[in-house]
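Final report, Chapter 2: Outcomes

The project's central promise was a pipeline that accepts a single protein chain and returns its three-dimensional structure in a standardized token representation, suitable for archiving and comparison. That pipeline is now operational. To close this chapter, we reproduce one record exactly as it appears in the project archive, with the input sequence first and the structure output second.
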Amino acid sequence: MPQAKTIPFTRHPFADGSFKKMLIDGQWVAAASGKTFESRNPATGELLATVAEGDAEDINRAVAAARKAFESGWGRSKPYERQVLLLKYADLVEKNYDELSSLDTLDMGAPLARTRGNRQRVVGMLRYYAGQATALHGETIDNSLPGEIFSYTLKEPIGVVGAIIPWNSPLTSTMWKIGPALATGCTVVLKPAEEAPLSALRLAELALEAGVPPGVINVVPGYGETAGAALAAHPDVDKVAFTGSHVTGQAIVKASAGNLKRLSLELGGKSPDIVFADADLDAAVPGAAMAVFSNSGQICSAGTRLFVEQRVYDEFVGKVADFGKKLRVGNGLDPETQIGPLVSEQQLERVTGYLAVGQKEGAKALAGGARLTEGPLAKGYFVPPTVFANVNDDMRIAKEEIFGPVISAIPFKNTDDLVKRANATMFGLGSGVWTRDVSKAHQFARAIRAGSVWINCYQAMDPAVPFGGYKMSGYGREGGKQHLEEYLNVKAVWIKTS
């Protein structure tokens, strides 16, 4: 497998080993406890920054600031004001995007080709939400009551939002939370993942530069069991928007019961990607491969269960393995890198544990299968693209979310029970179908129980199109008009006019 050259650690103006504070009420402050944690480059282990470690006391301060900002004016701000501010913010994000994308590459390892390739999506989200800010409206409803009674609805911001984001795509995750909150007139307390907090802090700086009022956006880095748990359970938080594991999602549901706060949960997946023999296999090979290998498999909707029709199984899976072997593994700062490191030593242990489990269960690694332990990448958390053949539905690698660059290739002979097998998972986030048969494509698009079905493509995303899951993949949607509804209350108004 080709390995991109190693490069010396490149200092970054926001990742130079210095101390990064949290943002509360428009001020950069240290944690009340004085605690800090380190953010390190997963490709080299080198220190990027020391970050303030927030806990319950800091969350209390941030929620109080968010409540004050909401009630003192932001919650009643005009749609046009919010639109203008979002557009200014989008311009600043676009102007500074290369710096922001480099931060994500340094902090969580994704290659520059990926982080910079998300420019249109990240900036586009802010501009989409800016457009939606002036399109929010209630309805006039004819009622059937006797007499002259006029009825209509208002759409009002829900209030203070607790946003908890993961480490696998910090820029897009932050925009998915901040964008709709700003568009609807909500305020936010954002808890970034401790593994990769730097781009969220830099985005907060740019928000202040754009003119976001103090307290509207607050950022409190910290750990899930302290800062995250305090935010999820806080009695003055009106909504929690969470992206992460289903286990944490379940804990947030329980924590929300105190004040019955609104929830939107974008959780894990074990997505089926189905390749029929009649598909354009030349297109399906890279499509199915990068449905998993992109971002080193650290994507919740990755198509990790690769169902391939029996008569093309050996040929197709062999080609996917060959494709994976040719991908360049290395430091994400190297422009030639296609596969970067996993985000942390903990994630490395998780993924390599599943590699061992798969081989113990009888799966055959046609590519990859072990951590890179020799050469210049040995100090980083690198796992090469891995393709397991001889996989059946009952193996753990076919049932459990691995969150690494690992494909479990499963054969099928006919379509009679294929839908049942594809749906035989507690998750329902993404899915893919590769076929030239339009009828078959529509049939499976309807039958698969997942929030997204990609036909002859995978991971296509756009701010105007909703994204979210079925079953244990969560509820609520991010993107599209449905996303903004998650941040709004509906109020009915009745007026007797006679």
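Archive annotation: The chain has a mean pLDDT of 96.
This record, like all others produced under the grant, will remain available to the consortium after the project formally closes.
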